[in-house]
Specification:
This protein is of the alpha/beta class. The strands form two sheets. It has a seven-stranded mixed beta sheet with strand order 7-8-9-10-11-12-13. Strand 10, helix 4 and strand 11 form a beta-alpha-beta unit.
């Protein structure tokens, strides 16, 4: 069974049998998640902003595992820090021992720690054990989400709701409708004053459709 854990901000840990996957691993803010003790096989980055790059370099080095990211971001990380990377572009399935992944468009910027261009920002679709999960990364509401439904029909959508840098609760509720996902998990809220969000309102907006809103507790990692 696939186990999805919300760690902090946009960081998620997906456990499938004996494999573990981290997405946007800004994990050191959650003292309950001790990555050193967890099985981690792959790290994914939607983009390289600090709140998504997080502890990726440290974890990759310590565990000797690759970071999968768009071309410019992956190349920067391997050249600057000497870590293992998988450099990819949007739109093609990439296969792993535990499943497969495709990077999809996100409407956002992407800069590297030194301010240089990190390539396009992305969302990530993950197929694991017959479950399809969409991590939207940082993005505004975009018609691409209708295409994502048509092409991929994700069952679970992890959506930013904090506003300012991404969708707010109203647009995220619209995104949920466009994606047609059975389950929506909010992320990218409550971390900074700029991304405060009304979770209750989000749950109410979601309840109008056929989607269920799962607010994951970061204490349950
Ligand atoms: Ni960002
Ligand atoms: Mn962000």
């Amino acid at each position: 069974m696939v186990d999805l854990k919300y760690i902090h901000h946009s960081a998620f840990y997906i456990k499938s049998e004996d494999k573990g996957i981290l997405i946007d691993p800004w994990v050191d803010k959650n003292g309950k998640f001790s990555w050193k003790e967890e099985k981690i096989d792959d790290i994914f980055l939607t983009h390289a902003h600090g709140d998504h790059l997080g502890n990726a370099v440290e974890i990759s080095k310590e565990k000797d595992i690759p970071v999968t990211a768009v071309f410019e971001t992956a190349n920067y990380l391997s050249e600057k820090y000497g870590i293992k990377t998988k450099s990819i572009g949007l739109g093609g399935w990439i296969h792993y021992p535990w499943g497969r992944v495709v990077f999809v468009p996100a409407f956002h910027s992407n800069s590297l720690p030194d301010g240089s261009y990190g390539g396009v920002a992305a969302g990530i679709i993950i197929d694991v054990e017959g479950v399809r999960i969409y991590h939207a990364g940082d993005t505004c509401l975009t018609g691409e989400m209708k295409t994502i439904k048509e092409l991929y029909a994700p069952q679970i959508a992890l959506l930013p709701i904090g506003g300012t840098y991404t969708m707010d609760v109203e647009h995220a509720a619209m995104a949920a409708k466009w994606l047609g996902a059975k389950t929506v998990v909010p992320m990218h809220y409550g971390t900074f004053p700029e991304v405060e969000a009304d979770l209750k309102k989000f749950a109410q907006l979601i309840a109008v459709g056929n989607t269920s809103c799962q607010i994951l507790d970061t204490d349950q990692v």
